[in-house]
């Protein structure tokens, strides 16, 4: 709802919104190299070890992103949960055949840049969590 209100407030007309499962959309709903970029801000962190397999940032997800992001396009992820930031960094660094870290190997990007602040980010900051941004470019 907030997104729709903001689109209306800004008078944006060059958007297309889809209500779809991200995994399905990346697998079969988008053409190869059809996106200039993908943003994933403050995904569900699944903090319990037995649930880590449910985290969206996994090698298979990155492979799907590589298919739909055009060469030179960006994937930007952000989290305030340090263990998830470390996990995302490791998964993305392992995908170096497809993506390069714009901040350099093993480093986080300066944030937020042009990334909008979210309620999850503000909550994390109130709790003293450091926000980590990762920006990788499609090779």
Protein topology:
Blueprint: H1 2-10, H2 22-29, E1 35-41, H3 59-68, E2 69-79, H4 82-94, E3 99-101, H5 119-126, E4 132-138
Parallel strand pairs: 1-2
Antiparallel strand pairs: 2-4, 3-4
Give your account of this protein's structure.
The structure is a single chain. This protein is of the alpha+beta class and 139 residues long. It is built from five helices and four strands, in the order ααβαβαβαβ. It has a four-stranded mixed β-sheet with strand order 1-2-4-3. α3 links the parallel β1 (35-41) and β2 (69-79). The chain starts with a helix and ends with a strand. The model has no long low-confidence stretch (mean pLDDT 92).
Largest sheet: 4 strands, mixed
N-to-C series of helices and strands = HHEHEHEHE
Q: Note the beta-strand portion.
A: 15-25%
- Which stretches are low in confidence, meaning pLDDT under 50 for 5 or more residues running? none
Q: Helix/strand/pairing class, anyone?
A: alpha+beta
What radius of gyration results from the CA coordinates?
A: 15 Å
How are the strands of the biggest sheet laid out side by side? 1-2-4-3
Counted by DSSP, the helix tally is 5
Overall pLDDT score: 92
**Apparent shape:** globular
Termini gap: 35 Å
State the helical fraction. 25-40%
Count of individual beta strands: 4
Throw out a few tags for this protein:
139 residues, alpha+beta, four-stranded mixed β-sheet
Brief digest:
The chain has 139 residues and is α+β, with helices and mostly antiparallel strands. Helices cover 35% and strands 20% of the residues. The protein has helices at 2-10, 22-29, 59-68, 82-94, 119-126; strands at residues 35-41, 69-79, 99-101, 132-138.
């Amino acid at each position: 709802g907030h997104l729709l209100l903001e689109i209306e407030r800004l008078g944006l007309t060059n958007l297309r919104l889809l209500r779809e499962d991200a995994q399905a959309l990346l697998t079969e709903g988008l053409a190869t190299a059809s996106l200039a970029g993908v943003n994933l801000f403050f995904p569900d962190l699944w903090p319990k070890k037995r649930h880590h397999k449910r985290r969206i940032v996994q090698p298979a997800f990155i492979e799907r992103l590589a298919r739909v992001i055009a060469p030179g396009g960006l994937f930007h992820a952000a989290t305030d949960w340090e263990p998830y930031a470390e996990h995302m960094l490791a998964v993305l660094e392992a995908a170096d055949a497809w993506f390069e870290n714009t901040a350099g190997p093993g480093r986080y990007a300066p944030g937020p840049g042009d990334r909008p602040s979210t309620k999850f980010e503000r909550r994390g900051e109130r709790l003293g969590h450091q926000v980590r941004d990762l920006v990788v470019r499609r090779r």
